[in-house]
TrEMBL record:
GO cellular component: extracellular space; plasma membrane
Bias-annotated ranges (Pro residues): 686-695
Protein's UniProt keywords contain Glycoprotein: yes
GO molecular function terms listed in the Swiss-Prot or TrEMBL record: chemorepellent activity; semaphorin receptor binding
Protein name: Sema domain-containing protein
Pfam families per record: Sema (PF01403)
InterPro entries for this protein: PSI, Semap_dom, Semap_dom_sf, Semaphorin, WD40/YVTN_repeat-like_dom_sf
Keyword Glycoprotein (UniProt): yes
Alphabetical GO biological process terms: axon guidance; neural crest cell migration; positive regulation of cell migration; semaphorin-plexin signaling pathway
Keyword terms, alphabetized: Differentiation, Disulfide bond, Glycoprotein, Neurogenesis
Species annotation: Albula goreensis
Length: 790
């Protein structure tokens, strides 16, 4: 894998190698078929990129009306509801329609607390309020909630009603209590919490300044309320921790072995004060830990931590590390004891900016915790492997009657066990990704990944984990990582969606596989996003297969949601290879050009004409080829070779101009070319025995045989051929002094249109000029015919 880009250095599949010398280009070609993205691009581009307005128009995203900055989310799929914590309020929303009769509880901070917060120099709007940061289901009728309380945390129970009591939603004022060590003081302070078996586990700052960080347990059924925390007197337990997530996981079938795993990043001091860096950690404690008897009283006696590594191996043995853990998602498997762990990491360097997603197995994590301990001789020494005697029972082991009848609780641990774990809480070995490297990377882009949610999707050729990744600029990436036959990972970006109008960081993601919805939270509010919108990929089988979206398949007439059935019927899908030639029976007919629509663009002599192409998919590579009147030869329009940043000879009659090409009419005309923009993508070789595109005997758009008259060309249209287009509307500026009019035409994709594009025609008496052709996604869908008026 390339250390800078993070792209796997792998070869293409064998069929792709045969494609390289046979580029399938129709005179103006958008090539979307190429060798796998690991070879074509250092970082794969999204198949679809939609802006905020396009998302709203498509109905794919539904913003929550009346909500503020999202502080917390609680998803309740069983009852079909979502709790939303914001500034001074908690809202109860319907999962299917978040704007359908939402209910709201007002819970502001006390006035005197707000005034004290202001006197302490805090901001009245962004800090001195009750930001609801903790929402957890306590039982079937109550939710436990906590807020920052204007830097004086508060907690209370919300009554949500049981079965048949859906209208109940109120704050139980009599239960309001201090939220210290349960909720952070600062609304921006990273923290993590989980509530299980009526116990609340929280990783947060324990003081007003946010310096001392600790992992605690509170609440619990009476009389078993044992408040436990980490030892803050030893900085090597947790040092300036930033908590990310906490999850209960059963290690064995014995409930006494149940543990809480929590993930965080911390400042690491190794050797000297100058050797300070940020490292990511996974730690665990036993759920039945009640502290020590003489030492570590009311402190964890089973606390252990290990390093999480997410890095790209370099060719010279030097890895590129993504040190800062940002988010964790546990994807359940058939074995509830072994969920798959997905982590989002970012770099700490201000020069090399990047993000990565690494995947870990619980088996590997347990193996590290069962391995050697780390040991440090003194403050000036580095950590090494502990090679001394390990006391019995092994430090970090949960007390269990089945393990040793003499040790019923952690207070029964021998003193040497408690002393050992106090001074050796860290494991020597690190946890590495199951693939040895990230499954997805983004480097040197203008955003960083912040959040992750994963959905397991069954497709025609197997199961795939679809990742939804939030960024710090308000965009959402939909990604699938595919393992090829040679065990090489291929990252495929399906969509890039601008969920929010502004570049606000995405701070919460909650996925509902049952409702097929994703709930996205940011400082701009809450949005409900559908997991799929298959018809956006195109209107033909080839485009649906090329998308490689596990949610979508071609059903014979449209790209629609894939539903597994006993009989295959007409469902066409190829996620692993994205090969429409093996799936679509009508691919030859589509490629033949019978469904091509032509656009007629008129220019005036001595004036230039701009032909613009705006493909829907950023994976397209645009190539313009010019066929002059009376000639069967097609020449590629290349940039001006006099510009050192451009290559290829300049064409005297046409020049690439961004996503378009500029045609200049008139004798002796000279052009100053600009580089065409575009990206390589998939292409397919010609069928065996077929003439090369544009050669003798070629059919369809590759050979211009018998150009029809203007009237015939204007009437020709064909529904369903590739992405639909808006009308090519001529922009008519005021006439020049000579009475001439410059005409420009733009072909723009319109995914939501259901009517075929039409051609606007203007009369002309005499014709001469050139013809250009366009193909998109390997499916020709537009002809440009440029004529010049005398």
């Amino acid at each position: 894998m390339d250390a800078a880009s993070g792209s796997p250095r792998t070869g293409p599949r064998t069929p792709c190698r045969r494609m390289e010398p046979q580029l399938w280009v129709c005179v103006l070609g958008l090539l979307l078929w190429c060798p796998p993205l690991t070879l074509c691009l250092r970082q794969s581009l999204p198949r679809i990129r939609l802006g905020h307005k396009e998302l709203l128009a498509s109905g794919r995203v539904v913003p929550f009306v009346g909500g503020g900055e999202v502080e917390s989310l609680l998803l309740d799929e069983e009852r079909g509801r979502l709790l939303l914590g914001t500034r001074d309020h908690v809202s109860l929303l319907d999962l299917e329609h978040i704007n359908s009769s939402p209910r709201k509880i007002s819970w502001p901070a006390p006035r005197d607390t707000v005034e004290m917060c202001k006197l302490a120099g805090k901001n009245a709007q962004t800090e001195c309020a009750n930001f609801i940061r903790v929402l957890h289901s306590y039982n079937r009728t109550h939710v436990y909630a906590c807020g920052t309380g204007a830097f004086s945390p508060l907690c209370a129970f919300l009554e949500t009603g049981g079965p048949g009591e859906g209208s109940v939603f109120r704050l139980q004022s009599s239960t309001v209590e201090s939220g210290r060590l349960k909720c952070p003081f600062d609304p921006r302070q990273p923290f993590a919490s989980v509530l299980t078996d009526q116990y609340l586990y929280t990783g947060t700052a324990s003081d007003f300044l946010g310096k001392d960080t600790t992992f605690t347990r509170s609440l619990g059924p009476a009389p078993q309320q044992n408040f436990i925390r980490t030892d803050i007197s030893e900085h090597y337990w947790i040092n300036e921790g930033k908590f990310v997530a906490a999850h209960p996981v059963s290690d064995t079938y014995n409930p006494d072995d149940d543990k809480i795993y929590f993930f965080f990043r911390e400042a690491s001091l190794d050797g000297s004060s100058s050797d300070k860096s940020v490292l990511s950690r996974v730690a665990r404690v036993c759920r039945n830990d009640i502290g020590g008897l003489r030492s570590l009283t009311n402190k964890w006696t089973t606390f252990l931590k290990a390093r999480l590594v997410c890095s790209i191996p370099g060719p010279d043995g030097v890895d590129t590390h993504f040190h800062e853990l940002q988010d964790i998602f546990l994807l359940p498997t058939r074995d509830e004891r072994n969920p798959t762990v997905y982590g989002v990491f970012t770099t700490t360097s201000s020069i090399f900016k990047g993000s990565a997603v690494c995947v870990y197995s619980m088996a590997d994590i347990r193996a590290v915790f069962n391995g050697p301990y780390a040991h440090k001789e003194g403050p000036a020494h580095r950590w090494g492997e502990y090679e001394g005697r390990i006391p019995y029972p092994r430090p970090g082991t949960c007390p269990s009657k089945t393990y040793d009848p003499r040790i019923k609780t952690t207070k029964d641990f021998p003193d040497e066990v408690v002393s050992f774990i106090k001074h050796h809480p860290m494991m020597y070995r690190a946890v590495y990704p199951v693939t040895g490297r990230p499954v997805f990377t983004r480097v040197n882009v203008d955003y960083r990944l912040t959040q992750i949610a994963v959905d397991r999707v069954t497709a025609e050729d197997g199961q795939y984990a679809v990742m939804f990744l939030g960024t710090d600029v308000g965009t959402l990436l939909k990604v699938v990582s595919i393992t090829q036959e040679n065990r090489v990972l291929e990252e495929v970006v399906l969509e890039e969606l601008q969920v929010f109008q502004g570049p606000s960081p995405i701070v919460h993601l909650e996925i509902s596989s049952k409702q097929q919805q994703l709930f996205v939270g940011s400082s701009d509010g809450l949005a409900q996003v559908s997991l799929h919108h298959c018809n956006l990929y195109g209107q033909v089988c080839a485009e649906c297969c090329l998308a490689r979206d596990p949610y979508c398949a071609w059903d014979g007439s449209a790209c629609s949601r894939y539903v597994q059935a006993a009989k295959r019927r007409a469902r066409r899908q190829d996620i692993k290879h994205g090969d429409p030639w093996s799936q679509c029976w009508d691919i030859e007919e589509v490629m033949g050009g019978d469904q091509v629509e032509e656009k007629l663009i008129f220019g005036v002599e001595q004036n230039s004409t701009l032909l613009e192409c705006v493909p829907k998919t950023p994976q397209a590579r645009i190539r313009w080829l010019l066929q002059r009147a009376g000639s069967e030869l097609r020449e590629e329009v290349k940039p001006d070779e006099r510009d050192p940043d451009r290559s290829g000879p300049a064409d005297p009659d046409a020049a690439p101009e961004g996503r378009g090409v500029l045609l200049l009419h008139g004798p002796g005309a000279q052009l100053h070319a600009h580089p065409a923009q575009g990206h390589p993508a998939r292409h397919r070789p010609s069928p065996p025995g077929a003439a090369p595109p544009g050669g003798p005997g070629a059919r369809g758009p590759a050979a211009l045989q018998g150009l029809p008259a203007p009237a015939e060309r204007a009437e020709r249209s064909s529904p369903g051929a590739g992405p639909l287009l808006r009308d090519a509307v001529a922009a008519r500026p005021p006439p020049t002094a000579e009475g001439q009019v410059e005409t420009r035409a733009r072909a723009e994709e319109e995914p939501q249109s259901e009517a075929p594009a039409r051609t606007r025609v203007e009369r002309a008496s005499q014709w001469r000029g050139s013809v250009l052709h366009l193909s998109h996604s390997g499916v020709p869908y537009l002809h440009y015919s440029n004529q010049t008026l005398n």
